[in-house]
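Expect chain and fold; see below:
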Amino acid sequence: MDEREQRKIRHRLAVLRYAEEVTGSVAATCRYYGISQPTFYKWRNPYEELGPEGLRDRSSRPHHSPRATKSDVVAKIVYLRQHYCFGPLKIAMYLKRYCDIEISNSGVWKILDRLGMGRLPANQRYKRHKQRWKRYEKPQPGHQVQLDVKFIAPIVGVTNKKHYQFTAIDDCTRIRALRVYPKCNEKTAIQFFDCVLERLPFRVESIQTDNGAEFQSGFHWHVLDRGIRHAYIKPATSRLNGEVCEDCGVAVPGLV
């Protein structure tokens, strides 16, 4: 029982005691408190039978609702909301088309609202197409170049050696440069970086890489010595280096 309900019970009990101990008249008590006589008897009769518990608000829900939505229809609405995140309009259309059930949009909304499902979680709400995806695209060439390494498995029947493909792609123009090396270390990363600066037709201002061993202190300081910024992405967030990861095709050793 919350504080608000307790205040109601104390007020109603005070009205009943005022009629019994002060005025002795129901009409005078009702005029004094500004209530109707049916309300007074509505409080007094349960109080005489149950005591203070009889002064609590009782449910006004009818015992029988012949026009209430059937439980199986409610179950279908809940299922579509939970598993497909449909809104009221889409749920009503689905039920009409596939289940031959006629129900209005407002009726679906009332059921969802009563069950506490009126609003979807933020990550499940519909977003317009232009708001769904955000491309991390830089405004000018060379503003940021992404670097990454891809392991190339040995080609059966051709070579038994392992190779590593270093790829760089400009975040604005999507121009890319790639080269294959037999080893993956800081030395080869530095060689590829110098090759990228020679190949790209514009000045590079920033390099972005993951936290691989080949891009650590030796590579980092070499990039800074060339007057270029070097930024690492956060661990386990390869999506931040997504341009080079998606465009990193597999090259055949000896052809690049």
In short: The radius of gyration is 37 Å. The first helix runs from residue 3 to 23. Residues 141 and 172 are 5 Å apart (CA to CA).
